[in-house]
Amino acid sequence: MGRSLHDDSLRPTQDRSTSTEPCARQISRQSREQDSKSIYQSRGQRYRLNSDQSRMLQDLGAFRTITANSLRKHLYDNDDERFRKDLRNLREQRLLTVHPGSRANGGYVALTKAAKELTQSALSNRDQVVYSGIVKKRELRHDAAIYDVYQKEARKISKGGGTPKRVVLDFELKKQVNRQLARIQTIPPAERERQRQEIAEAHGLKIVEGKIQFPDVRIEFESRDQEQCKVDLECVTGHYKARQIAAKTAAGFKLYNRDYRGRSAERGEDLVGEVMSL
Prior knowledge:
By secondary structure, the chain is an alpha+beta fold.
């Protein structure tokens, strides 16, 4: 039976700076809950998953790829032994693939096709698109960092009383928009541009310097007052030029810094203040 994202998989990591040390009874109960497994069936196969493994599949499906270190940090509170045990078990069940990465990130983790089908049918919010496999290897580092961007912004949403409901990757937004743009290619230029503007606005996007700007990820969330809201995020890396950062800022995106080193300032455009650090 599917669960809403904010109940489990996309719930942000809690800030434990003010938490108290749990008592032995609490630790014992948490341990039992982590070890307890549920049985799921998908296409004639049976899978045994504990709650942490279910969350891992849901998050991987929503974000396509996440580094092993980020999963361990956000889902396992840096408990390396428990994380490696669950990761090994999921690989043995042929639900995960791990693409080699750096020693620092522990590799890039993604769902297999079987895991995608299981997640779609039994674990994920019906409104959440689920992905499997790795598409563009040269963009792995950037794509995996989007999960860390999400976690930081989701904590802010939660502190404000909001609840993340769904994430939308740029791939999904582009697919929806491009499908509509293809239908207007043969109409007169003036009318085509007018409809192009309407299409962008219908998806909550802006045209900047003649291009529809797409965020890396959109978080759809419910506010404290139960209003349906969204926030668009961009993960800025050292490969971004000042003009790209300016366009993303003009589009209204919140920019997070992964390894940006202020190269725009070298061109006389000090945009570093627009970028928040991870």
